[in-house]
Amino acid sequence: MATLSPVTPNIDPLVARMQGFGTTVFAEMTALAVRTGAINLGQGFPDTDGPAKLLETAAEAIMNGANQYPPGPGLPELREAVAAQRAERYGLAYDPTGEVLVTVGATEAIAAAILSLVETGEEVVVFEPYYDSYAAIIALAGGVRRPVTLRPDAGRFTFDPAELRAAVTPRTRVLLLNSPHNPTGTVFTREELEVVAEVCREHDLVAVTDEVYEYLTYDDAPGGAHVPLATLPGMRERTVAISSAGKTFSVTGWKVGWITAPPRFVRAVQTVKQFLTFTASAPYQRAVAYALREEQEWVDGLRVSLRAKRDRLSDGLTAAGLTTFRPQGTYFAQADVRSLGFGDGRAFVGALHERAGIVAIPTQVFYDSGAGDPYVRFAFCKRDEVIDEAVERLRRL
Ligand code: PMP
Ligand code: GLN
What we know:
It is a single chain. The protein is of the alpha/beta class. Helices cover 40% and strands 16% of the residues. The protein has helices at residues 25-36, 52-63, 76-90, 105-117, 132-140, 161-167, 190-202, 245-248, 263-276, 282-294, 296-319, 345-356, 384-394; strands spanning 39-40, 100-103, 123-128, 144-149, 151-153, 156-158, 172-178, 206-210, 239-244, 257-260, 323-325, 332-336, 358-359, 361-362, 375-379. The protein has a seven-stranded mixed β-sheet, sandwiched between helices. Strands 11-12-15-14 form a four-stranded antiparallel β-sheet. A two-stranded parallel sheet has the order 1-13. Helix 2 (52-63) packs antiparallel against helix 10. The N and C termini lie far apart (67 Å). It binds 4'-deoxy-4'-aminopyridoxal-5'-phosphate and glutamine (GLN). 4'-deoxy-4'-aminopyridoxal-5'-phosphate binds next to helix 4.
């Protein structure tokens, strides 16, 4: 007689290489804020909308039939707009046919790039703290991450070139660089990028660059404007550059991203990407193509407004007794909680929620080493009154 299968199959539903990746800290903290009504300075999303005409363009696209699969590489008009943006802003020429690929946000671009480039056991050098999806995707690819720690130096986070060089081994295949950098807010300077480029050239590495905050830089600070790594000598041919519309146009829920790279890299990434999602977001692709060409002024305004918010929050954190790192870019500011007598970011974030009704991100979850234990990240892409209320409540600590 056949035995009945047990009600619960006797399997572990999560593959070994994903064990340890529970719920992301961003989802955890936003759920906590929603559940308790706390002010959410955790997950990085703005609490105001992008430009009206951008939103209208997407709505019109839906009403006018842009609702079926767009081409696998992305809508031609968006690929052309991306190529024009890289050319006009950075002097980087990419052919919209073959050197641009539209993805489901930067997240899919990063995933498809790492999955296409990294063989089992190969190593990826990445600065820590690193964006959470990097660790998960390197693990999914069967790769090994080699973190290089960013440490505070003269008020901003940077790396020791000797440590970067020491992290490279014969098994290193990719250097994954995020600039402007989440969560530290560092915009890497040309001099720093020259070191990175030299390491890539010397060891024949592929650079994958995450540039989603490319517009969000505050030019009074060291670093100034964003410099794409691909603009440095010998780097265009070995760089897979990634960006997306979410931060630039305050539409983080739209998930329209792209890569620009030489044709053989685009072909490789697309080979993976076509089996992850094939394609997505037809109406949003059309709207983002419009915005990249026509909404530069709105983005300039966003940058000015975010710079003021950066100062508003940083001053408030400092006034509350926290050692604060005023970022050169992104919409995150970091604070060292030891100045308020806390030993570690998790403990501080717990007390912050309990006593002040504010949610923030303990940066230690983005480190392999313990170097991030004292840091907490606050998002300032929020309305002024929300920042002011948070600053007021910080006094309760
Ligand atoms: N990289 C970094 C550094 C980020 O902060 C984010 C957060 N949005 C992403 C990638 C993901 O971008 P997207 O929402 O376009 O997938
Ligand atoms: N990029 C956003 C942040 O750093 C979060 C995106 C997400 O929730 N995965 O806060």
